[in-house]
Amino acid sequence: MILQVLLWIVAAISAFVLLIIILLAIPIKYNVAASYDEKKTFLNLNASYLFNFLRVSYKYKNGRDKLVFQIAWFKFGTKKKKKPKKIISSREEIIPQEKIIPPEKTEKPPELKKETPVEEKKTEESILKKFKGAYDVLTEIQVKTMIKYVFTALKKIAVLLRPKYFDAVSGFESPVTTGVVIGRVDAAAGMFRFQNFRIAGDFNAEAFNARVKMRGNINILRLSLPMIRLATRKPIFALIIKMLRKG
Length: 247
Known about the structure:
Layout: H1 2-25, E1 28-36, E2 41-49, E3 54-61, E4 64-71, E5 74-78, H2 90-94, H3 118-137, H4 140-161, E6 165-171, H5 175-191, E7 196-201, E8 209-218, H6 220-231, H7 234-246
Parallel strand pairs: 6-7
Antiparallel strand pairs: 1-2, 1-8, 2-3, 3-4, 4-5, 6-8
Helix pairs in contact: 3-7, 4-6
């Protein structure tokens, strides 16, 4: 009887872990379209998860925005803010404009700056002391190795976050500046092995403008692997253990 109960507990834990892994392995799909110039600003962002079971959309255009969440067929969110219409009261129609006395403006008291509580300051100081005490024990070689591991992990995360499709057109006030910026961005994109990447310059632009379209996937499980590997590296893991022991 005890063995059967243990088997059921192990099976339940295994099923729960497997479910978490499957949920983390399902990618979040996103689609972004944006444009900016002197006259208008536009942003359209759509994201979906669990095969469109969960969806989020955000739209922004010239100061008006709309955010919508959707679970299956149910939608809820914020609507676009509309400017209120001016309603002329009967009093304003009867009384001449020069006789209407505007209400007196009341001065608001100056807002006091919120001070950080003593407990929060002590917590921040204790964390800094723990990190500094653990960091002082490390040798210069260990610090350089840690920096190398961190940059390697960040590069892998950047590669995993790169969009599958990227198309952009941008221009600055000067054609020289446009050429330099476009060239540097194009060179940086080659480091992260972009496949469908295109960026062009608007050399006739008189002011900064940009138009961007991109789409891709974010896999949380794949993103967690470089971070787990970074935390388990010998010098970084030793630093974490020393900080925990000092606590």
